[in-house]
Here is the input.
Amino acid sequence: MKCPNCQFEDRDEARFCDQCGCDLSKPEDFPSPIDYSQPQSCTPKFVADKILTTRSSIEGEGKLVTVLFADVANYTSIAQKLDPEEVHQIMDGCFKILMDEIHRYEGTINQFTGDGVMALFGAPVAHEDHGQRACHAALSIQKAVEAYGEKIKQEYGSKFKMRIGLNSGPVIVGSIGDDLRMDYTALGDTTNLASRMQSMAEPGSVFVSGHTHRLARDFFQFESLGKVEVKGKEEPQEAYQLIWYTYALACATGTFSWLGRWVEALGYGQKALQIAQEYGDKSLTTFVALIISSMYTMKGELNRAVEYGEFAVDNAPTPMDEAPAQASLAWAWCRTGETARGIEVLDKLAPLFRSARFIPFEVPANLYLGEGYLLAGDSGKAAKTLDELLGLAHRYGMKGYTGFAHRLLAEIALKTNPDEAPSHFDKAISIFREIKAENELALAYSGMGRYHKQQGDTEQAREYLTKALEIFERLGTLIEPDKVREELAELPE
Here is the structure.
């Protein structure tokens, strides 16, 4: 089922869009044809609303953005070989892919170039993780175009691939009109260098500048191309190729884990693990295995979580690979009852990640440590650890971990100061609803139900606990449903 608002391909049974939250049960008018010269015509409502509601806060401001250029490789030869109408149909399908994937990560298309687009991430919709979003979008585009290219080859006999270039830098945002047109001034080579990266890219690849690499290197794998000559630049420039396939599968495992979609999470993870092992890449094997371990921990299948965590540690080729694997295994230990063992490991790892500024693992390691302290009954250390990581998670736009921390702080408050619990639970629920993290949402509902039970509000307790149970049972989460059933059974009729 395709969402009429953002065009995301939803599950057939979904009532609301997993991407933008649109009510899929409401009939929609047939969409009007897209006018590529009119921004409001090709911008989905959920993105347009964000632009219009926040524009006053960014007009006239300097923003760091990531610029994406994408074009069709060998477009001229395709245009010469086929009829204009056929070329038009091919490019309409291509633009549809570009719009879907760019808007999925809340980028905005600033210009259609005839055989491609220029897009911005970080303005006019402000995001601190604009570099990561642009990389995600670029990889998603190439994945979608790979399948689309097979279709074009079968129907028209022409190869169809895209080249993508990324660069990050400052712009000054001017006015933003009601029609979503944005005036901006690029400072330095922000735009030009992105264009140069795209023109240098091989068909089917993504080239990024050193500026974008520095923003996203902790989240993606890159292959250094060294310093390359760039037209218009006196000095050679650092360039990298974004390596996408296996790491994208592993990241999909993490994403589907947050959504509570365990079958899809494991499917992507097993495929990534198979590829990593086939190529003998122990570093990648370790990374994928630790992601799968964390997925099993979230699901509650703890024996498997420990198994994959140990496998990740055993295959780690370097201390830098081993540390995140140990953190994932230690989290599983905390939940299996070996809490002291888990805390001992995490207590050593957390400051190592902090000193190395390894943010992608510093935040979860401290979160696992905070949960470990909570499970061990040390509410003081748990609260201190979680309070400290909240600011870090928020600063780096890690909404899932921010919500997770609020949920744990609410659990602490239930034991130490119940009046503070609802505020934390409400924040967690709001975040988990926004990012569609259903399993974590169910945990927050369960906690809120126990709060109301503690306060003697049976009706509210039953409502929240029932919501939690419905989600857990639908997702196939283990352990937690039995806990909720026990809480419900203890409520007076």
Confidence is low (pLDDT under 50) at residues 26-41, 176-182. Strands lie at 62-72, 108-112, 116-121, 162-176, 182-186, 206-209, 221-228, 237-243. Residues 2 and 221 are 31 Å apart (CA to CA).
